Amino acid sequence: MPIKITINKETVGGADIEEVAAPQATVKLKARKALDGSIIISDHKLMDIVVIPSKNKVLIVPRPGFGQETYFKQKDFFNALNSRGVFSGPMEGGNIYGVFEAKLGISEDLSSVQVALLEIERYFKQEAVEEGFAEEYDDEIEDRFINPDDEDSTESGEIEPEEETRDRTNPPPPHQHYGGYWYN
């Protein structure tokens, strides 16, 4: 069940609240809220992102069964958000194998969590475009082998098998000489 997170909305039956300005940006992520207030984002196929507002940290948790490719995606995620100024400090190893954590930068003017969520969505959009190009390329290569064009294919028997042509074109290796003896 998805949870809708709304920030700066008037409370029902609360005290008189001034009119709230329209939001500057909205974020669409596959996210859920944990009991401790952490936001678990599961948009990526290789890793989950956990934003912990109480500790001002982000955890990058790998999904099981994807191997070493996950580490490179975690590193790419950290580098992308770090270059945008979201994190303050290096990526550190977590207390579970494969989990990395990074501290969010602190600003007096902006909410660190809101900036992190905005940049995470931006990263996932960019990643989706790149993954789309990679999938298109893989499909094109696969299609080229499975369904080749007429100019790239031949009929069965039109070209002799390599084993038969190799015997005629390559002469046998020369005799070996070692220590005064000839070997055949």
Could you walk me through the main structural features you see in this protein, from its secondary elements to its overall organization?
With 184 residues, the protein is α+β, with helices and mostly antiparallel strands. The chain has a domain at 31-146: HIT family, subunit A. The protein is built from three helices and eight strands. It has helices at residues 69-83, 112-146, 162-169, and strands spanning 31-33, 39-41, 47-52, 57-62, 92-93, 100-103, 176-178, 181-183. It has a six-stranded antiparallel β-sheet with strand order 1-2-3-4-6-5. A two-stranded antiparallel sheet has the order 7-8. Strand 3 and strand 4 (57-62) form a beta hairpin.
Spell out the key features of this protein:
HIT family, subunit A; two-stranded antiparallel ribbon; 184 residues; elongated; alpha+beta; 6-stranded antiparallel β-sheet
SSE layout:
Layout: E1 31-33, E2 39-41, E3 47-52, E4 57-62, H1 69-83, E5 92-93, E6 100-103, H2 112-146, H3 162-169, E7 176-178, E8 181-183
Antiparallel strand pairs: 1-2, 2-3, 3-4, 4-6, 5-6, 7-8
| Major sheet | 6 strands, antiparallel
Distance between the termini: 76 Å
Work out the strand percent.
15-25%
Helix content: 25-40%
Report the structural category. alpha+beta
Number of helices: 3
Which term fits the overall shape?
elongated
**Which ranges are low-confidence, i.e. pLDDT below 50, for 5 or more consecutive residues?**
8-15
CATH class of the domain at 31-146: Alpha Beta
How are the strands ordered across the major sheet?
A: 1-2-3-4-6-5
H/E series: EEEEHEEHHEE
Mean pLDDT comes to 79
What is the tally of beta strands?
8
- What do we call the CATH topology of the domain at 31-146? HIT family, subunit A
CATH architecture of the domain at 31-146: 2-Layer Sandwich
Q: Mind telling me the C-alpha Rg?
A: 29 Å
